[in-house]
Amino acid sequence: MALLTVLLLVAVMAAVAVVLLDDVRFSVRRTTNADVQAQAQWYAAGAESLARRQIADLIKADPLRTPLEPRWNGRLLNFPIEEGAIRAVVTDGQACFNLNSLVYGQREDLFARPEGAAQFIALGAALGVSRARMAAAAAALTDWMDADAEAAPGGAEDARYAGLATPYRTGGVVLADVSEMRAVAHIDAGLYDRLRPYVCALPTAQPAKLNVNTLTPDQAPLLTMLTAGAVGVQGARAAIAARPRQGWASTDAFWGQPALQTYSPDDQTREQVTLVTRYFDLTVDVDYAGGRAVRTALIHAAPDGAVRTVIRRWTPEE
């Protein structure tokens, strides 16, 4: 009997030891993973800090025309580190239609901006989307942000969303992220995917100014949008392709090129073209010791030379 008791006690102690060892191994693994993730995030934060300094130097080099050299727009930078690598890409963050320009005003006092809706519809037309569908999407987006509770023709206010299986309300403020479009009426996955490369949500209700020195041929629809369709996508590509190696010396030189001689821009269109980039998109992807951290940021370079991060996320762009 005593032997049986001893054997039972040994068996129980062995079982407890196995459980304790599993707990210890799990705790060690969890601590290691946390340390790896924290270090990867520190690397990403360091890359963002470096990007801000480089952007400040870029703006300081020529405050009136953002230099194209050294090449920065869309260039993949790869920095090897111990047990991994840091990859970073900076792009022009204002080469897009600012969804928040569908309204004007401050904070929660926002009202419909017809000029913004016209450009949004023109962008969709350049991408092959019907004007009727784009007009409905523009109205719904405007209703999502504006101050009133009255739906515009084709739009949608709180009453529309309150009747859904999972009800919610409109934002009543400017968009914080482009992905909010997916919650807005008349915008399905197909339309979202079509528009996503050409739209942004800058932290202002002002229209985005297009830097014609950083536009790529793939962004030609933005130029078509700006001219309300007067310059077709092929013509816009030709205008972008004609850019000198060092970029246009002035916006007048851009508008005066042969590819655009048949188009005469009005004052509003001229004001939306620039040679200076104020918003920069940064994506940092860190691989370290089996862990990964992705950091995206929108960096603003003010006219006074101050450079700061205005939006930061620990997720890839959607």
From TrEMBL:
It is found in: Cell inner membrane. One of its GO terms (biological process) is protein secretion. Residues 210-272 form the T2SS protein K second SAM-like domain. It holds the Pfam family T2SSK. NCBIfam families: T2SS_GspK. Keywords: Cell inner membrane, Cell membrane, Membrane, Protein transport, Transmembrane, Transmembrane helix, Transport. GO terms for cellular component: plasma membrane. It comes from Brevundimonas aurantiaca. This is Type II secretion system protein K. Signal peptide: none annotated. Residues 95-204 form the T2SS protein K first SAM-like domain. Belongs to the GSP K family. Gene3D superfamilies: EpsJ-like, GSPII I/J protein-like.
